[in-house]
Amino acid sequence: MSLLEVKDLGIAFGGLRAVGNFHINIEPNDLIGLIGPNGAGKTTIFNLLTGVYLPTEGEIILTNENIVGKAPYQIVQKGIARTFQNIRLFKELSVIDNVKIAFHHKMNYPILSGIFRFPSYWKEEKQIDKKARQLLDLFQMEHLANTTAKNLPYGQQRKLEIARALATDPKLLLLDEPAAGMNPQETKELMETIHFIRHQFNIAILLIEHDMNLVMGICEKIVVVDYGMIIAAGTPDEIKTNPKVIGAYLGE
Amino acid sequence: MLTINNINVNYGSIRAIKDVSFQVHQGEIVTLIGANGAGKTTILHTISGLLRAQSGEIIFKDQTVSSTEPHQLLKMGMAHVPEGRRVFSQMSVLENLELGAYTRKNKKEIEENISKVFERFPRLKERKKQLAGTLSGGEQQMLAMGRALMSKPKLLLLDEPSMGLAPILVKEIFNIIQEINQTGTTILLVEQNAHMALSIAHRAYVLETGKIVMEGKAESLLGNEQVKKAYLG
Amino acid sequence: MKQSIQYLINIFSIIILYILLFFLIQTGILSSYYSGILILIGINIILATSLNLATGFLGQLALGHAGFMAIGAYASAIFTMHFNVSSTIGFIVSLLLGGIISGIFGIIIGIPALRLKGDYLAIITLGFGEIIRIIITNLELTGGAKGLTGITRLTNFHITFWITVVVVTLLYTFVHSRHGRAVLAIRENEIAAEAVGVPTTYYKIFAFALAAFFAGVGGGLYAHHIRTLMPTTFRFIYSVEILVIVVLGGMGSFTGSILAAIVLTILPEALRDLADYRMLIYSIALILMMIFRPEGFLGTRELSLSKLFLNHKVKKEGGKTQ
Amino acid sequence: MTFLQQLINGLHVGSIYALIALGYTMVYGIIKLINFAHGDIMMLGAFTAFMTLTTFQLPIGVVLLITIIFCAIAGMLIERIAYKPLRNAPRISALITAIGVSFALENLFLILFGASSKPFPYHINLPPLSIGPLQITWITIITLLLSVGIMLMLDFFIKKTKIGKAMRAVSEDEDAAQLMGINTSTTISITFAIGSALGGVGGVLYSIAYPQIQPYMGVMPGLKAFIAAVLGGIGIMPGAMLGGFLMGIIESLTKGYISTLWSDAIVFGILILVLLIKPTGILGKNIREKV
Amino acid sequence: SKDTDTIKIGASFALTGNVSVYGIAARNGVELAIKEYEETGGKLDKKIEFIVEDNKGSEVDAANAFNKLVDREKIDVFIGSDISGTTLTIAELAAEKKIPMITPTATALPVTEKGDNVFRACYIDSFQGGMMGKFAATELQAKTATILYNFGSDYSEGIASTFEEVFQENGGTIVGKESYTNDDKDFKSILTNVKAQNPDVLFIPDYYEMVALIARQVHEVGIQSILLGVDGWDGVIDQTNDFPEAVEGAYFANHYATDDPKPEIQNFVNNYKEVYGEVPNALAALGYDAGKIILEALEKAGTTEPEAVINALKTTNVDYVTGHIEFDEKRNPIKSISVIKLEQVNGKLQQKAYTTIEP
Ligand SMILES: Nc1ncnc2c1ncn2[C@@H]1O[C@H](COP(=O)(O)OP(=O)(O)OP(=O)(O)O)[C@@H](O)[C@H]1O
Ligand SMILES: Nc1ncnc2c1ncn2[C@@H]1O[C@H](COP(=O)(O)OP(=O)(O)OP(=O)(O)O)[C@@H](O)[C@H]1O
Ligand SMILES: [Mg+2]
Ligand SMILES: [Mg+2]
Fold it and tell me: C121-154 burial, b if ≥16 CB within 10 A, otherwise e?
């Protein structure tokens, strides 16, 4: 059974059809790359999958349930988490709070318990503090727990965003240009991190990236879009040699 | 052309740039490379006057410009393509270019210049009426570059011009940088894509947590083991 | 362990402060003029901290706080007048009633208003505040333009002190719970908050309604202190005055609001002798304070007594908007 | 017929709102500051005109010119002293400063001129224009024409001239504008000068129409004009104009046909409705944050 | 107070804020009364200290100001405030503390009901409204009237409703009751309706500044009705100097007429003009009288004991600038009303005493 099944997905902004006829099947623990020229519609696809935009047509089926029309926070609770092309952290909050917020829907104590500090508050807060620290530890960021997020270097911010997405306990993780603004060395480390979380958390990953070293290096399958339409799909080797992809995207 | 002497730059109480000195000579392409947060952007901002150094000196065309306003620096011939493109998204492509020539008076020359930019970036010509905010990332990058060229700079500061671009566009952008340099513009280039940057630059400086740790000819740095390990992957 | 020591120190300091003020008032060292000012400080603290929840912590610029205060003031006053309430218990019931009605209006107004952002939200809350005032002016029940007079004096220093303590404590504990964190996340980045599973609309409305609830409680205290309610009192300029306290104290800092409420209640009093020049000097002082400390007294930090005593770093959980 | 008359009444009030709203919107459009003191600049204009009229008995044209210059300078000074230091501060802090400036101006004039209204010594002595049973006063016609004219000029100025483009650039991205060689301080000063000059003109016309001036006279028109600007889409010149006219007409019709008691509530109600349907005002562009 | 050689008179008015128009005039009047009293060597053997606190028209400030005057300054008597909201707040407190108090201008009925130490110098709304209703129906023989009142001003509303009642009792018909609010500047939409009603008289119970604005537009719209006003109109001629047609032929009730040849009135008017540079309006005159009433009561009581002062106040029975004043059992003044007609003489408006109505 597929984890995610997307059929005929499309959206138009005004007259512009940004995405059309998009389809993809993602199995549990897949690692798939989504590439294409600037303005091809990749980020828009992410926005459709996470409920930020309402598609004009198509179905998004997550483990047998059509999630089209669900609010972003509901979709997160059902198991799709994401990062953003331009980092969106809770800048003024501490690193650990950034992660704790993502545990929100996994916690149960009600508002009154929070306000009046009933035992359930103490119990859950303690648990979550522990869990958040463990997660940060996996990213070697535990020592930064009390740092304000905006003061982190860029690379750490990207990592924190991934950690935060993982805290929501997703089945599918969407990464939008995680290596943008990183140098090759940092990109290499990132590749390791992605590998690691995929196995550690046993999740599927769909990622957008312009860095071909990364995409070709770790993705098992690649989907190429241009003008909102899929122009190719296949293994890295197939994609590398596909003349359409070379013409539109890779060059040379 | 540009000399930086012992500048220190703070964000609040945090010192981001420590005692940095370097030069850019007439006609060169000089590149600054370094990890995330090393302070490359901070240095460019300080040079173009958007940030002020706590101490140290910046000399541009034999004049101390450490406290000169950015708009005056532009008149002196320095243009800066900032990180993240920063095009005026509610204005058309043409208006963006016109603003690039804000300080110039000669209408005819400006016209000529615009057609030159269009020649260099034919994509922009197709979209000259479009609002800049609706351009794709790559087109915005071209616009940012074209806009900076409109002031006919002697020195061009470029901050990560290839970020977020498709591979096909990355190559194009570096070609254009070389072309601009050949027509007489001196270039200070900041890049994450150290490989590309070093392959077009004459000289390079390596920045680590706010300090310059290495400098030299671009080719020699390209072959340097340390650099290879840290920045070329 | 450390935390419980912190709590003890805070509770202890509050009790000491209360005993001190109690003693000063009982012995007449603080006359009714001063105890009146203390009551106003308490009311202003309640109004400012509650607005801070909406503006500093949730990050929504609201200009209708005086409207919620008015609802609470009129509701509780009408209740005590109608039932001839003279007991403290009855008074507290009336305050809760005022708070609840105000909170309900908070929800009714919040649902449409919170779809807007920034300055547009400010304008729409301003509009609602004015509509509330106009309705009050047009109702028989509220005494219309003539105002409501003859309200029993039920507010005193003691009750104000403890209600203020309770309100600030509850606001503080709320902000430092998972729900409060959700509210902070919305301020920091609404899109990201939603993307990590926070139902943003729900929390926006909840925080807004909670702010309205406490503003209503503050209004009830006001009504039984001043004892004359005029609709004109609750013009939008009153909302602006509360906002000034919040910004001056620091958006996202309860202790900042407390500090600013004290300063801005006392300052006009201290300038009282200057008669006609009073408001000119006050406004110039305001401009200067903003120029020299644009982030407010405390920014997003909280003052902590235990920090003073224990000399260790207390984790901060605030942040500023924009 | 009364309906037409009510409409004309509404247009008159509306055109005054529009005139003040133009200045409001201009400043907001460029530096995103709700300049609370704008209404008080209007008051400043009225008093300047009052002083020059009573002490020097100058002709109205000269008076208007002096008022414009005086208000423009005052606007620039206020910006330099009170707003510029807060350029990089949170926007809401600048808003509080603007409120402070507003209070300061009101109280300064209260001390200088006292609280009681002074009759404004200039009025147009022509009898109202009668078209059938309809009556249109000359001041209505003048304000109407002037506000439309100024709107067109400003719109052209901002869209087409070099300084106008610089203003828009500054409003979008101050740093990037500096990198284009734009002197942002000067540009912002010019913005305030124009905005305040408009406020001053508004003050004079307002005082001719309602010939009483006092230190608090700017508060209500200021607030109404601001609402008008928001209604039309703040930052947009034709929007300010449209918002002003609409406000005036709605007010006039509710007062004439429903009830004065509820007219403000109705105006606010309509404003709220419009914003709920069109969150950025009638002519506002709905710019969604790109994710 | 304990201080034996000074008498402290406290006062609080709106000296700043948007109702300071009323407060400043009233304050000036009180101040002048005290100044004159001291200069002419009043019979009190103690020094008088006059302490005024601004309340900017806010109830909160009014409470603080009053508490401060009582607790810190230890005042013996209190004069104030101007508008009803602040005055009610203070009256509550004054009643608790038994401080003799008189408000020069607050017309709201409940003010003096707060305690038997609270007095007022102005007539209550219902009295004035009733008198003018009768005047319109009987003296002016008006059959129809439209009332144009300030909604949100308890003063204007109070007068309007009694006028309506009495005018109808005397056989008149109210053809329209229109309202505006304090923030309005443009009345043409309302006046357009009034024009259609075409009443014999148009009654506008409000203060002179608003009236001046309205009257001008009444003229512009082309309404022919006789304008009728109340004590708040005092001062309207200065506002309509350049447009006398607007209010020419109007009648209004007043406490006194500035052209009244009585020496005490002329004295007051001239002295006031000298000190404050403008013609005193009704609020100033009421402030002045409130000051005199208090001073005379203090004199009569011969002590600052509150009981004695209150009793002395109760027996007030003197001619003042605003008329002869006695207090009824509710401590409201029983005064005569002067009706004034505005006439144009040589292109200049003048107030002419038309008739006096005794209570
Ligand atoms: N909210 C929107 N309104 C209008 N047009 C939009 C919107 N969002 C995206 N677009 C347009 O849709 C197209 C696809 O944009 P998208 O951001 O998905 O591209 P992308 O493939 O992620 O490109 P890049 O690699 O540069 O990030 C672009 O032409 C863009 O201008
Ligand atoms: N506005 C700011 N306030 C505080 N610290 C800042 C600010 N901007 C940058 N920094 C810090 O200064 C250091 C240098 O940042 P800078 O942006 O110059 O790095 P960079 O070399 O350009 O990195 P990148 O490759 O990510 O663009 C970093 O540690 C960064 O966190
Ligand atoms: Mg993208
Ligand atoms: Mg950088």
Answer: bbbbbbbbbbbbbbbbbbeeebbbbbbbbebbeb
Q: Are A58 and A22 in contact (CB under 8 A)?
A: yes
Closest ligand, as measured to the CA of B43: 2
- Going by their DSSP bridges, the two strands D212-213 and D134-136 should be labelled as unpaired
| Neighbors of chain E by Cβ distance (3+ pairs < 8 Å) | C, D
Look-up of token digits 């598609």: A55
Q: What is the pLDDT of residues B71-93, one digit of tens each?
A: 999 999 999 999 888 999 889 99
Instruction: Indicate whether C138 belongs to any domain.
Output: yes
Q: Could you say which DSSP state residue C312 is in?
A: S
Q: What is the DSSP string of chain D?
A: -HHHHHHHHHHHHHHHHHHHHHHHHHHHHHH----TTHHHHHHHHHHHHHHIIIII---HHHHHHHHHHHHHHHHHHHIIIIIGGGTTS-HHHHHHHHHHHHHHHHHHHHHHH-SS-EE-S----SPPEEETTEEE-HHHHHHHHHHHHHHHHHHHHHHHSHHHHHHHHHHH-HHHHHHTT--HHHHHHHHHHHHHHHHHHHHHHHHHHS-EE-TTTTHHHHHHHHHHHHHH-TT-HHHHHHHHHHHHHHHHHIIIII-STTHHHHHHHHHHHHHHHSTT-SS----PPP-
Q: What is C229-281 written as a DSSP string?
A: E-GGGGSHHHHHHHHHHHHHH-TT-HHHHHHHHHHHHHHHHHTGGGGGGHHHH
Looking at the complex, does the CB of residue C70 fall below 8 Å from at least one CB of chain D?
no
Tell me whether the omega of the peptide bond preceding residue E12 falls within 30 degrees of 0, making it cis.
no
Query: Considering the domain boundaries, does residue C32 fall inside one?
Result: no
Instruction: Set out the domains of chain A in order of their start, with CATH numbers.
Output: 4-250 (3.40.50.300)
- Residue range(s) defining the domain that contains residue C222: 41-236
Alpha-carbon distances of B200 from B75, B180, C108, D242, rounded to whole Å:
27, 12, 63, 56
| C293: in domain | no
In 10 A of CB A77, how many CB atoms?
Answer: 18
Q: How many domains does chain C have?
A: 1
Cβ–Cβ gap C185/A84 under 8 Å: no
- Taking the CA of residue B192 as reference, the ligand 2 atom at the shortest distance is 25
The letter for the amino acid at E353 is A
Ligand 1 center to A11 CA (angstroms): 11
Domain annotation covers residue C288: no
Task: Please tell me the total number of residues recorded for chain B in this structure.
Answer: 233
The tokens for E4 are 């034996």
**Residue C45 class from Cβ within 10 Å (0-12 exposed, 13-18 middle, 19+ buried)?**
buried
Q: For residue B68, how far is the Cα from the chain centroid? A: 18
- Asked if the model's pLDDT at residue A42 lies above 50, the reply is yes
Pairwise CB contact (< 8 Å): C192 & A84: yes
Mutating which of E189, E195, E281, E348 best tests the D interface, going by the most D Cβ atoms within 10 A?
E189
Please give the angle made by the CA atoms of E334, E335 and E337, to the nearest 5 degrees. Answer: 140
In chain C, which stretches have pLDDT less than 50?
311-322
Using a CB-CB cut-off of 8 Å, the residues of chain A touching C295 are none
Q: How far is CA E243 from CA D217, E248, E268, in A?
A: 21, 9, 27
Sorting pLDDT into bands at 50, 70 and 90, what band is D128? confident
C-alpha distances in Å from residue D75, one per residue of C250, E15, E90, E358: 28, 27, 41, 56
Please name each of the domains of chain B with its CATH number. 2-86+153-232 (3.40.50.300)
Q: How far is D81 from chain E, CA to nearest CA, in Å?
A: 24
Cβ atoms of D261 and E179 closer than 8 Å: yes
Q: What is the pLDDT of residues D25-70, one digit of tens each?
A: 999 888 888 888 999 999 999 999 999 999 988 888 999 999 999 9
Q: Which residues of D touch B50 (CB under 8 A)?
A: 175, 178-179
